[in-house]
From TrEMBL:
Name used for this protein in its record: Uncharacterized protein LOC106779951
Length: 287
């Protein structure tokens, strides 16, 4: 059956495809054929897919590549790309013998588009195979697991901003300013940042990564393992400049909560530290 599908002649003219779509959609509301009927010739396959995705995002659904092929000179093989609704087809269980307790987005949606090279081979054209859905369209794609994915350009922006220690909220704001159609959520930004940092760590654990970075940046560190074990129970590290400051100013003001440091700016903290030092009457400070 699969060999027959691959060997089928997909060279169907656009008028017959429109008639087929109209026949199926007779009496069915929400036919989207007109949204994708165009005489435009796209410069490449990627431009065709980008044009389609720009329309479907506004309509409230997502398309995925169902099948594609490239002509290699063998009989029955032609260059084409078949796009369909993400909810098309049936869910295939990972373990067929075990019943699944989870739901699925698949509902055998028949919506399909087909792109193929133009007759002279210069550019691509789009044809509508079936233009309707058997499910309701989403009002918004915000939070959608597929629509919210970062493309290669957005991923590069996220990596660069992560390296400069920009917060996730500011990264998301930058992505939305660069792309008005961006529907990424803060959770997806956190996930992308974690994936990037996890790729840097490789097979090392978090503690091994920390020890490696302490050695790389020449921090002063000390660790102690549990008795009769290689499990680290205590770890201390400090920057060499902090040791120099401690030796130069051996009177240290300790603050029990970090939120006070955020509320009281460093300039204020310096003033309070000086005031505390000037009013201190202990023998160590007086010397």
């Amino acid at each position: 059956m699969d060999e027959y599908c691959y060997g089928m002649d997909f060279e169907i003219n656009s008028s017959r495809l429109s008639e087929f779509s109209s026949f199926i959609n007779e009496g069915v509301e929400g036919d989207l054929t007109n949204h994708f009927t165009t005489n435009e010739i796209f410069s490449s396959r990627e431009n065709l897919i980008e044009w389609v995705r720009g329309i479907v995002y506004n309509l409230g659904f997502v398309v995925v590549t169902i099948r594609s092929d490239k002509a290699t000179g063998q009989p029955g093989r032609k260059t084409f790309v078949l796009l369909g609704c993400e909810r098309g087809g049936k869910y295939r269980k990972y373990k067929p013998d075990q019943p699944s307790t989870y739901g699925t987005r698949k509902c055998e949606c028949p919506f399909q588009l087909r792109g193929k090279p133009y007759c002279n081979g210069d550019g691509w054209i789009l044809q509508v195979i079936c233009g309707y859905h058997n499910h309701d369209l989403a009002e918004t794609l915000v939070g959608h697991p597929y629509a919210g994915r970062l493309n290669s350009t957005e991923q590069a922006v996220l990596v660069d901003m992560t390296k400069t220690q920009v917060t996730s909220a500011n990264i998301l704001l930058t992505l939305k300013q660069n792309n008005d159609h961006n529907v990424t959520t803060i959770k997806q930004v956190y996930t992308a940042r974690y994936t990037y940092k996890r790729s840097l760590r490789g097979s090392r654990t978090e503690l091994q990564q920390l020890m490696m970075m302490l050695d790389r940046d020449k921090y002063i560190h000390w660790s102690r393992c549990a008795e009769d074990s290689e499990v680290v129970s205590d770890l201390f590290w400090t920057h060499p400049n902090a040791v120099k400051l401690l030796n130069a100013f051996n009177v240290v003001l300790l603050m029990d909560s970090t939120y006070k440091t955020n509320i009281l700016h460093p300039t204020r903290c310096n003033k309070y530290a000086r005031a505390a030092y000037s009013h201190c009457c202990c023998s160590q400070c007086s010397t």
